[in-house]
């Protein structure tokens, strides 16, 4: 019988701490593992050797600050995870291994709003095709992360608002995909997954407190507080799209007037340019024209940035994040939108919060959510299952 505090249970706890640190980061040097876990360099060295010998981790030479170091990652063949991301007009699937390498990825256009069952049919087929293309058996799939473009009610697992996806009314996305794939499925909204994707793979690496802002048909924020997604008890934290900016502004789909969304979401913004640019304009095209110097598009993009900045200023005062990452199509506008966001933040946020904040574009573009879905599975996975041992292979760590 093992008692808590005994030598072997302490050893087991240390093994799990190291596995957890590596699993969340993708790859770490031994010095980084020591810093993250608080274990001594000698202990880390012994544990890494043991984990390498039993096939749980792989160790590859690297350099850190010009010095030779050893990069530690979970073994590439210990299992695979799948990310499925539903947008309003696309379906994207990625397959990754536990070393945070993306093995296969594909996106298809789809009218997700029209029919949930058709969307899930397509997802099921694409997952099967991509897993097969990796040459790794389906029995190696450890879990699936699922992203949906709307708030998820964490208790029921259904979409919090069917006004956003009318074709999904009464559907439980997690249950639906679990039944079809026969593996555990974790579900979250697109903004939270974008935040997780950028935190683990992109612009948020190394940061503990981050807000990911996504402007599309709605406006949402994924909030990372002390390294973890903050969802709130109802799962609706981060709905910054419905911060009131103007009491007498346009009526929002939520029933209020002058919400942030009515100044920034695609249909309101494109409406401003209808008279001058016609009704075929899209947000990517508006961004492209703005970058080419079109004055009307530049003006509108700047105004959107100023309004987003007002919402970010409120976020800043409440949560004091160290980084704000802008995702979605609008991020492609670069400084045209980021500059006005920063101006609003410095005008409306308290100086001490604004000074510590950096505002930057996402590094992952349209891949942020699907990579976040992979990261969701990796972050929620138990460490005990990984410690049962597998043969390791030598592959370079971390290549998204
Ligand atoms: Zn609203």
Automatic annotation (TrEMBL):
Q: Give all residue intervals belonging to the DUF7343 domain.
A: 14-58
Q: Which UniProt keywords apply?
A: Kinase, Transferase
Keyword set includes Transferase: yes
One of the entry's Gene Ontology molecular-function terms is: kinase activity
What's the domain of life for this entry? Bacteria
One of this protein's Pfam families, by short name? DUF7343
On whether Metal-binding is a keyword of this UniProt record, the answer is no
The UniProt similarity line reads: Belongs to the ROK (NagC/XylR) family.
What's the protein name?
A: ROK family protein (Putative glucokinase)
Q: Which organism is it from?
A: Actinacidiphila guanduensis
Show the taxonomic lineage: Bacteria, Bacillati, Actinomycetota, Actinomycetes, Kitasatosporales
């Amino acid at each position: 019988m093992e008692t808590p505090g005994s030598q072997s249970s302490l050893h087991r706890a240390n093994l799990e701490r190291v596995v957890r640190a590596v699993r969340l980061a993708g790859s770490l040097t031994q010095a980084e593992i020591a810093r993250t876990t608080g274990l001594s360099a000698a202990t880390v060295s012994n544990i890494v050797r043991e984990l390498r010998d039993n096939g749980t981790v792989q160790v590859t030479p690297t350099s850190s600050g010009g010095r030779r170091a050893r990069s530690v990652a979970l073994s590439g063949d210990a299992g695979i995870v799948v990310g499925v991301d539903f947008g309003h007009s696309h379906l994207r699937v990625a397959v990754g291994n536990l070393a945070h390498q993306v093995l296969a990825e594909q996106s298809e256009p789809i009218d997700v709003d029209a029919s949930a069952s058709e969307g899930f049919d397509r997802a099921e087929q694409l997952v099967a095709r991509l897993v097969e293309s990796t040459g790794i058996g389906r029995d190696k799939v450890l879990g699936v992360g699922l992203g949906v473009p709307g708030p998820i009610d964490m208790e029921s697992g259904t979409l919090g608002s069917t006004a956003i996806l009318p074709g999904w009314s009464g559907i439980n996305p997690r249950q639906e995909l679990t039944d079809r794939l026969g593996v555990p499925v974790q579900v979250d909204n697109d903004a939270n997954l974008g935040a997780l994707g950028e935190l683990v793979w992109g612009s948020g690496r190394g940061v503990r407190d981050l807000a990911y802002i996504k402007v599309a048909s709605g406006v949402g924020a994924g909030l990372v507080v002390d390294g973890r997604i903050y969802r709130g008890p109802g799962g609706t934290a981060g709905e910054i799209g419905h911060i009131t900016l103007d009491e007498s502004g346009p009526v929002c789909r939520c029933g209020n007037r002058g919400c942030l969304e009515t100044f920034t979401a695609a249909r309101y913004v494109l409406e401003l340019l209808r008279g001058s640019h016609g009704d075929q304009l899209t947000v990517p095209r508006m961004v492209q024209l703005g970058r080419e110097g079109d004055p009307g598009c530049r003006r509108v993009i700047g105004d959107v940035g100023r309004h987003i900045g007002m919402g970010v200023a409120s976020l800043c005062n409440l949560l004091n994040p160290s980084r704000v990452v802008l995702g979605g199509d609008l991020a492609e506008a670069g400084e045209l939108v980021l500059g006005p966001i920063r101006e609003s933040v410095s005008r409306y946020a308290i100086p001490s919060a604004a000074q510590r904040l950096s505002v930057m574009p996402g590094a992952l573009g349209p891949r942020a959510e699907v990579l976040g879905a992979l990261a969701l599975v990796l972050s929620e996975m138990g460490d005990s299952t990984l410690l049962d041992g597998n043969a390791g292979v030598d592959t370079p760590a971390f290549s998204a």
